[in-house]
Amino acid sequence: MLVKVFAAAIQGINATLVTIEVNALRGIRFFLVGLPDNAVKESHERINSAFQYNGLKFPSKQIIVNMAPADIRKEGSAYDLPIAIGILAADEVVSTERLGKYIIMGELGLDGGVMPVKGVLPIALKAKELGYEGIIVPTANAAEAAVVDGITVYAADNLLQVVSFLNGEGELAPYSVDIEKDFYSQQNSFPFDFSEVRGQESVKRAFEVAAAGGHNLIMIGPPGSGKSMMAKRMPTILPPMTLQESLETTKIHSVSGHLPSGVSLITQRPFRSPHHTISSVALVGGGGSPKPGEISLAHNGVLFLDELPEFNRAVLEVMRQPLEDRKICVARANYKVEYPAGVMFVASMNPCPCGYYNHPTKACVCNPGQVQRYLNKISGPLLDRIDLQIEIIPVPFEEISKTQEGEPSAAIRERVIAARKIQEERFRKEKGIYCNAQMTPKLISRYATPDEKSLTLLRNAMNRFNLSARAYDRILKVSRTIADLEGCENIQSHHIAEAIGYRNLDRENWGE
After folding, report:
1. Following CA atoms 238, 243, 247, 249 in sequence, which dihedral angle do they give, to the nearest 10 degrees?
2. DSSP readout, 412-454?
3. CATH 3.30.230.10 residue window(s) in the chain
4. Among 15, 284, 328, 338, which residue has the fewest nearby CB atoms (within 10 Å)?
5. DSSP character string of 78-101
6. Contact assessment for residue 100 and residue 6, using Cβ atoms and an 8 Å cutoff
């Protein structure tokens, strides 16, 4: 008997329908075709054990399982449950009447327990798009799938529950979540706050400007000056995620296997801080079984690279294109996938190998050649893509010992949100543009044109510091953001002056 069960495969961060055809014929052999990987091929043993443990009999027939379309590679153990159901249906143990209404996914344990799998959210979205009545998934993944409105989610703990449900002998209760409660309850709950940062008012201002315009930022300063501490607090002043951003971010974490069990939505902007030993593939994605990299896991949030010169230069250079295009296309011989990479890039570095070059009280032991070689580990093209370059110095004892707390993140966030609303209205008709950092040269000429006085100031800075054309655009973008924070319609000279002050590393005499 030939039956069809429906499942899905993940390509990039989206799902593709997979039809599992099972035919039971005379004979004793088992065939699994349709470009399965080793994990899929091993499903035979898991299914056989699950059948025996639960009193079910593996058919004494020749079983042919075809996973169509056959030119898409099927990976992972998520096909155990649909293949098992297909085998039972082909042996007329499971009714075929309801099989066509559901997409079924799940890994089987040897005892028939249904264990969690990756990528359930995009699979649920695909099921809704194709008009399926529902989706049957492991209980641990049910909250994730239930955020998709308009499709019924059934949570299964073991194989027998699914068999009884499909035969109409038992019911799987539809699983539901309170999306509004899940989405809004955690948006303003953070473990860190800018009120804990003593001093560093100029750096806090730079963080506010970066958050208001979605700009990239780098801090350069000695150890212990608070670089990492402030970077971890960047998400606390960014605008809350929209529901669409939350769904998109959750999809990425779902397909990569980083979504915690029982979590339905990622409601806070992600903060990713990979170690400097990271490889290019781990950063941008790909690999033998393609997965999103750190730059995609930080999508709609912050990617923080601490001790930037310690990263392999080849690893850093692969970020140049994603920082511009806000997406990354990974092309290999046997696949091509595209991952979103709309991140705010924040980095920190010491000014020299010993860390104390230009320190106000401690002497640097590095010679000029060592300092220059250390700074040259960061290429000019990469620095050009960083809008704000901030020098940070240690906080004096008088500031550290103050008992009075600094300005809280909530107050800074209010100003950031107000500036972002101005930008949303400005770019309302521009597809894919949401903040000043995303402005194209055409939009810069339209919305960030300096007056004559500002243009003279900018011309002098360009000549004095020998800035590139990209740096010129960055200064205008940052100036537009500073003006938005002040509620000014036009860019003024003091906006340009402040933006120029955020280009510390462009100065040839930096640190002298």
Report:
1. 0
2. HHHHHHHHHHHHHHHTTTSTT--SGGG--HHHHHHH----HHH
3. 2-177
4. 338
5. TTHHHHHHHHHHHTTSS-STTGGG
6. yes
Sheet architecture: strand order including 271-272: 271-272, 302-305, 344-349, 217-220, 388-391
Q: Which residues contact 232 (CB under 8 A, 6 or more apart)?
A: 192, 271, 273, 304
347-357 burial code (b ≥16 CB/10 A, e <16): bbbbbbebbbb
pLDDT at 510: 53
3-state secondary structure of 460: helix
| Secondary structure (3-state) at 282 | helix
User: Is the model's pLDDT at 17 over the cut of 90?
Assistant: yes
Ranges for all domains in the chain classified under CATH 3.40.50.300: 194-506
Query: How large is the angle between the packed helices 452-465 and 469-486, nearest 10 degrees?
Result: 140
Supply the pTM of this predicted model.
0.88
Q: How far apart are CA 448 and CA 427, in angstroms?
A: 13
Read off the pLDDT of each residue in 450-467 and give the average, rounded to a whole number. Answer: 85
Angle subtended by helix axes 409-426 and 469-486, to nearest 10: 110
Token reading at 355: 């860390």
Tens-place pLDDT, residues 20-43: 999 999 888 899 999 999 999 999
**Domain 2-177, classified CATH 3.30.210.10, yes or no:** no
Give the amino acid at 98: R
Q: List, for residues 251-288, the tens digit of each pLDDT value.
A: 999 999 888 877 788 889 999 999 999 999 999 988 87
Task: Give the model confidence (pLDDT) of 120-144 as tens digits.
Answer: 999 999 999 999 999 999 999 999 9
Contact 158, 112 (CB under 8 A): yes
Question: Residue 187 in 3-state DSSP?
Answer: coil
Joined together, the tokens standing for residue 446 give: 């339209």
Please state whether beta strands 285-286 and 291-292 pair in parallel, antiparallel, or not at all (unpaired).
antiparallel
How far is the C-alpha of 100 from the C-alpha of 370, rounded, in Å?
Answer: 68
Spatial neighbors of 138 by CB under 8 A, at least 6 apart, are 105, 106, 107, 114, 115, 116, 117, 155, 156, 157
CATH code, residues 194-506: 3.40.50.300
Location of structure tokens 């600094």: 406
* Residue of higher predicted confidence among 396 and 360: 360
Residue 155: strand pairing partners: 137
Placement of tokens 């997965």 in the chain: 291
Look at residue 512 and tell me whether its pLDDT is greater than 70. Answer: no
Q: Give pLDDT tens digits for 143-174.
A: 999 999 889 999 999 999 999 999 999 888 89
